[in-house]
Amino acid sequence: MQVFKAFIKTAFKSFPSIMLYFIIFTSLALLMAYAYTDTTSSSFKSVELQIGIVDKDHSAASAALSEYLDSMHELISLENQKEVLLDRLFYRDVEYILVIPEGFEDNLLSGKDTNLFETVQIPGIYSSAFVDQQINSYLKTVKLYLSGGYSLEDALSHSTDTFLDTANNVQIVNFNEDTQHSASLVGIFSFYQFIPYVLASMILCGLTPILTTFWQKDLAKRISCSSTSLISRNLQLALGSVTYAFFNWGLFILTSRIFYGAEVFSEKGLLCILNSLMLLPLSVALSLIISSFSPSWNATNMINNILSLGMSFICGVFIPQSQLGENVLAVAKFLPFYWYIKNNDLISGSSDELFTYTAYWQNIGVQLLFIGALFAIALVASKMRLARQEA
User: Which of 125, 285, 340, 353 is the most core-located residue (most Cβ within 10 A)?
Assistant: First the structure.
């Protein structure tokens, strides 16, 4: 196990700098998690807004939706003219405009999930996202009643009654379980929301230089001249990489346990932990790919920033996926962080999709596919590196 021991000694030499990264990144993650938690908590307070509405459908479904919103907000009927809508929004006569298009009721009956309604909003106003969530929750409830065999009239009636009874105590509707989470659990969701950036940065910045050292031509030849076989060397390097990754991951699990208590090991907490486990092989695979090209320390930092920061911004780590544009999300689906955040939103109940174990494991499966693809690329990069050394 000489290679493994050398790996650990090399890792210990970089331990102080990595711990500095851990302290800085974790402090930032906790601050962002606190801000995210505070924003999330405040967004669920019952607040009356001035909402403009344009009903083009004039159906029972559109009338029921208007009645639901009118129970919590001040509804203002507007003319269907773009200039009028923009003027009312510009002068803050309304804070949010809902446009119910023609065919709204038919689309609802057919089970359509997207583009059921249109909105005109003031950018950067969090209350707009709150109204979006209220509307989506209501429509989701109607669709669940319809899928349960209720007629449209009964589905609208039951949904309206359900929400009118709780108009002064707004909450997300989930038919599986109570979604009113404790402060600790909300903090856990927020903390694990930001882990992809922190953990990936830790592993990439720490593991890549170590692997690069062992890939150096002279050192590789010295190891090959010893009694250690190539297979044994690679297995020991793999063991060292796994140990290093689990050590970093364990630091974050311990940190979440210290800050959020035993609730980290509740059912939802464990689902978050399992989801975060997918980040380990993902980060190790990226480190293997990068180290194959023997980058310098500065180059490693630059690549790390491009990968971790880039994926974090595009995939919803820093900005909720619900606030990202369709084109951005279309690109993000080809990146592994997107499926991690999608799973985290699913667990926390902040997703438009109801939580089911089927959906959760599907997202885990997609992450595993990304991991498999990255390890395949790492294998190709390793062969290319060996070919360069032998040349």
Answer: 340
Separation of alpha carbons 116 and 107, rounded Å: 7
Q: What is the predicted pLDDT for the residue at 246?
A: 94
The two beta strands, 50-55 and 74-77, are: parallel
- d(Cα 357, Cα 169) in Å, to the nearest integer? 28
Question: Whole-angstrom Cα distance, residue 367 to residue 337?
Answer: 8
The DSSP line for 247-297 is: HHHHHHHHHHHHHHGGGGGSHHHHHHHHHHHTHHHHHHHHHHHHHTT---H
In the prediction, which pLDDT does 41 show? 47
pTM, full prediction: 0.63
Domain boundary (139, 165, 191) is at 165
Q: Among the residues of 59-182, which ranges form H helices?
A: 60-70, 82-90, 104-109, 126-147, 152-165
What's the one-letter identity of residue 198? Answer: V
Specify the DSSP element, H or E, that contains 232: helix 230-260
pLDDT of residue 45: 43
Assess if residue 172 is contained within a domain: no
Give me the pLDDT at residue 174, please: 42
pLDDT at 90: 76
- Quick one: which of 117, 114, 113 has its CA closest to 59? 117
Domain of 319, in residue numbers: 2-40+181-390
**How many Cα atoms occupy the beta-carbon half-sphere of 142 within 13 Å?**
27
Q: Sheet containing 96-100: give its strands across.
A: 74-77, 50-55, 96-100, 118-121
- Side-chain-side CA neighbours of residue 256 (13 Å): 28
Domain boundary among 132, 165, 198: 165
What is the rounded CA–CA span in Å between residue 320 and residue 32?
A: 13
Is the CB of residue 43 less than 8 Å from the CB of residue 227? no
Residue whose C-alpha is closest to residue 179's, from 355, 310, 387: 355
Backbone angles phi, psi at 115, to 5 degrees: 55, 40
Question: Which residues in the chain land under pLDDT 50?
Answer: 40-46, 168-180
Whole-number Å distance between alpha carbons of 304 and 309: 8
* Whether residue 240 sits in one domain with residue 315: yes
The DSSP element (H or E) to which 337 belongs, if any, is helix 336-348
Cβ atoms of residues 363 and 339 within 8 Å: yes
